[in-house]
Amino acid sequence: MEDGRREIDKNLTLVARKPCFGLPTACPTCLPVYIYLRFSKIPFTLEFNSIHPDSDQIPYVEYGDYVAYNNEKGGVIKALKEDNTVDLDSNVCDVPEWISTKALVETWLGDAIKYELWIGCDGKSAHEVYYSDLPWPIRKILYYMKVRSVKQELGITSENADSREKEIYSRAAMAYGALSSRLGEQSFFFENRPTSLDAALLGHVLFTLHALPVSTSISHSS
């Protein structure tokens, strides 16, 4: 097909974390996948996994015997593209500006979301999205383990915590400015049609506006 999709004769199933904050799924990793599938206009069913809400496999897509997990092949969207199941990027994936713009969303804005969700605010949003269906002792332990993991991932220590916070928020503000200038009055970034870049940014913005506290620094930056 012209847009890089193959014919799907039955519904895909997207398994994500639960809805809350008025979002179809309130997980910052799941939401861009949901939007990407909506952009593709391929029918799919949305289901939720509350048994293992902290699993790195979530989100994942099932289609017959086919499964694309979040923690394999670089993520669900990349797997769907490589397997030619749903590919909205076929005409732009080699364009240098598209590559650099998407990297900006996935790195600088991705780091800002991680920081704000797990370190920068009081943890209520993270508990609601990931752990609210679990017994209190378990969710508390899992939360603190995740906070420690995110600090390691972002290179945050007790010595550099303040400087890393300023750097993360500063990069997010610069990213918002660059993305706003690039998008202008257009509905989509490239070729007047949606790609995974648009899904990633829209997912980020919706999560920031709906799931994070209004007082957060990243909300003010956007």
Account of the 3D structure:
The protein has helices spanning 30-40, 76-82, 96-120, 124-131, 136-153, 161-183, 196-211, 217-221, and strands spanning 12-16, 44-48, 60-63, 66-69. The protein is of the alpha+beta class and 222 residues long. Strands 2-1-3-4 form a 4-stranded mixed sheet, with helices on one face. α3 crosses α6, α3 (96-120) runs parallel beside α7 and α4 packs across α5. The longest helix has 25 residues, at 96-120. The chain is globular. InterPro entries: Metaxin_GST (IPR033468), Mito_Protein_Transport_Metaxin (IPR050931), Thioredoxin-like_fold (IPR012336).
Shape descriptor reads globular
What letter string, H or E per element, gives the SSE order?
A: EHEEEHHHHHHH
Helix fraction by DSSP (H/I, runs of at least 4): 40-55%
Percent in strands: 5-15%
Give the CA-CA distance, first to last residue: 36 Å
Rg (C-alpha, Å): 18 Å
Spatial strand order of the main sheet: 2-1-3-4
Major sheet details: 4 strands, mixed
Mean pLDDT: 92
User: Any low-confidence stretches, pLDDT <50, length ≥5?
Assistant: none
Structural class: alpha+beta
InterPro entries: Metaxin_GST, Mito_Protein_Transport_Metaxin, Thioredoxin-like_fold
Domain Thioredoxin-like fold: 28-119
Protein name: Metaxin
Domain Metaxin glutathione S-transferase: 173-213
